[in-house]
Amino acid sequence: MPRYLTRRLGQAVLVVAGVVGLTFAVMRLVPGDPAVAFAGPRATEAELAAARARFGLDDPLWTQLWNYARDLARGDWGVSLHTKQPVAQDLALAFPASLELVGAAMIVAVAAGVPLGVLAARFKAGLPDFSVRLTSMLAVSLPVFWLALVVQTVFAGNLGWFPVAGEYDNSLDVTSPLRVYTNITIVDALITGNWPIFTSTLWHLVLPALVVAAYPAGVIAQMTRAALIEESGQDHARLARALGFGRIAVLTRFALRPAAGPVLSLIALVFAYAIVNGFLVEAVFNWPGVGRYAADAIRSLDTPAIAGVTLLVALLYVAANLAVDLLQGLVDPRVRGR
Amino acid sequence: MKDEHDAGTAEAGKTPDPITVSGPGGLVVPAGVVLRRTPLRALAGAARGDLLATAGAVLLAAIVLAALLAPWIAPYPEDGGTATHPAQALLSPGAGHWFGTDQVGRDILSRILFGARTSLFIAVAVLALAAAVGVTLGVVAGYAGGWVRDVIMRVTDVFLAFPALLLSLALAVVLQPSVATVVVAIAVTWWPWYARLTAAVAQSVSARGYVDAARCLGVPAPVIVFRHVLPNSVTPVTVQLSLDAGGVILTAAALSYLGLGAHEPTAEWGLMVQQGQSLFTTDWWVVTFPGLAILVTAFSFNVLGEGLRAALDPRGRSR
After folding, report:
1. CB atoms closer than 10 angstroms to residue A220
2. Which distant-in-sequence residues (6+ apart) come within 8 Å of A61 by Cβ?
3. What is the number of domains present in chain B?
4. ipTM of the complex
5. Which whole number is the average pLDDT over B148-159?
6. PROSITE patterns, from UniProt (chain A) (predicted)?
């Protein structure tokens, strides 16, 4: 295990270095001179030179890349052009809201996807199987921004069952102010016993979380179905069936467990994917997360903010992959040898 | 010569690549299996047993036809472009305009038919670019092994760390928004999947007797790679391409929805949703039909790809 751990960690460090380099390269492609953007169109030659010197634009590219990486490591992610705040600080405030939304969506997705997959595998090639395959295929083919608009207009606009937008009713900040610990509103409200904000947040979560959950639920259902069908053909599952366990019991107690590894790793990867998908949903539902921040940044061509969001999600992706591999290595010795 | 080759495969067998590779569309294709059956035969097999895949193939054929024939079958061909008819703005669906008209009076059905051209063009261009780069790098990595493989795979890992929509988003912000930008931006994030998939297959192909034989006869490495290894390694990629087309269309629509892709007067479904969204509560058809067009197209690619995958999977695990 220690050898596997160091090798896998070494790979992750290389990938992070590459991610930083690639983000730097993309941001250097920005058309226009950053010094002009800073000093303004009517700046004199001397002012431009001063701006260039200030941002280190006269240094060789390697030095600039090194300085960029050093600043990132120190937590200096640049200053956003549209909020005028440090990007790292903006992201630290926005990310917990995204985590709240995607976390809720993943709970829904697992709660819906796994039982549907079991159902489809139990009635393989029958009507339930066909319905689950059809539904899950539709779920992964939905354009998420459109689904968000439709759900918002129908269930919040026309029917008025749920709030249209936002994370919770902001007037509650006056009547029952929230004490902040984790910045994840629903968790803070729960641990401080702030029930008005808790119920309001839960109520606001329903629609966006369902929309974000559609894609992962479809993928999880398909994956669970395929893994269960493969496992239930194995000797141990057939033995259990011969011993008199019912079909559902065999699937859930004997086939689901060995299939848990691939399904769990898929869930971790889909989680990272859902964060990006959540961006579009946040923009529609005005959810105060990284996605809305990115959408605002796009509108104002705010490159430091875009770079920050890109970097944050890429690092999350690397971390999710690493966690999955290490967990699987811990659980399954065969993975370590490969 | 033989000993040398055996040492090579033994070492290759230890590389940490997983045997299954999940595509950007999130669906899983078994790799490492050399498939003898052709996609065409598999398609016939899929059609016999799989209602969904057949439906996907039929729908897709209809969409391709609609895209090709758009200038002739669209009720108002001039509405695919710059035409405006302010007097007919926001007519609800009816006899003259089956899907209604948009805010400048253009027929939505016509624009959806022309939008099929944009979406299919983007899908084909992205997949062709990504497959060309990914398969070339993958087959080289799989055949060469050793440090060449390690370098290519680590570069691939870096690109894989960026979710497709995100890096395209960053690229689309720094480039000028256009259909070409969307194609480049998505292709940049898409090729690593094919590199990984091809590398895994090419590695097992490279260990075969006929490759050994070619090497013993003194055939130069580039010829072995592109004449012998490549044609025997591409079948899984063709299946993956069909699975991924839906994902490309969804990503491209999302970029255009965010204003980073196609722009007026190009007919593009994501852009149509964005332009109509402020009118959605009063004029439901301006958003509903373009969105359905995206859904149906992505769905047909997905079920067709899934059917192909199942038909080509020798273990038949998901049938």
Report:
1. 27
2. A28
3. 1
4. 0.82
5. 86
6. ABC_TM1
